[in-house]
Amino acid sequence: MSPRAACRLDALGFEKVHDYTTGIADWKAAGLPLEGSTTDVQQVADATRPDVPTSRPDELLGTVWQRTEAAGWDEAIVVDCNGIVIGRLRGRTWTHDTDVRVVDVMEPGPTTVRPNGALAPLVDRMEERGTKLVTVTDPQGVLIGVLVLQEAQRLVTGEPPEQIWVDCEGCPGQWKLQPSKPTAQS
Amino acid sequence: MVTDIDRQTLLELIDAGAQIVDVLPDREFNNGHIPGAVNIPLKTLTTETVSILRRDKPVVVY
Predict the structure, then answer these.
(1) Is 0.80 topped by the overall pTM?
(2) Any alpha helices (H) in chain A, and if so which ranges?
(3) Which of B5, B13, B61 has its CB closest to that of A9?
């Protein structure tokens, strides 16, 4: 639909016409804010935290652990130079020698979800499978953040969140921290 | 001239003040659209309806 609209605007004399070919589906899947939405269904984006530590695959494990622990987390997401998720560091991964490269010990290909998915069914699945954290990416696999089960449960049950990241008004694609006390990652 | 763009370029154009046009039917537009977008459904895209847009400023359609 949009290519035809773009051509028509071009024919009508508009000088610079751009076609966002992937459209609103791509925008929603990236977790970007919507205007005029009538839906009140909680989405994964509502509980996604973008402050999870990240690592490049060629970094040393010890260096990444220091950074991760200092930030109050016990998990880090491994991304390539384009920000695409390629692995995960957690649990027993950290018991390897500190001078090994991340790429040699990371858990490759972690499960990811999109930010525009419904939150409650995902929380149910995570509870059933004992999953405490899941990685959130855009459709191209670029890291957006992580969803922590404990925080998502609070949101679903209507409890006040301890720390929830929300869309920043007037700046699509950015986030801000609600005025509540940051907590350490469990 | 028409240029295909991705999301990152769209965000840059929004920051630069581009005009965003949602050409989907109004029902879909009302279910949620890109902030600041105006709705001109494809079937109603005429000289008259696009008169709300400036021809010398970038326009993004989706």
Answers:
(1) no
(2) 2-11, 23-29, 61-70, 102-105, 119-129, 149-156
(3) B61
* ipTM of the complex in this document: 0.97
Contact A34/B34, CB-based, under 8 Å?
yes
Q: What is the CA radius of gyration of chain A?
A: 19
**Amino acid identity at A146:** V
Q: Does residue A13 come out as left (phi exceeding 0), alpha (psi in the -120 to 50 range) or beta?
A: left
Tell me the per-residue pLDDT of A131-152, one tens digit each, with 9 for 90 and over.
999 999 988 898 988 999 988 9
Instruction: Write down the mean pLDDT value for chain A.
Output: 83
- What is the DSSP secondary-structure string of A115-148? TTSBHHHHHHHHHHHT--EEEEE-TT-BEEEEEE
- Nearest by CB: A18 against B33, B37, B58: B58
Residue A119 C-alpha, separation from nearest chain B C-alpha, in angstroms: 18
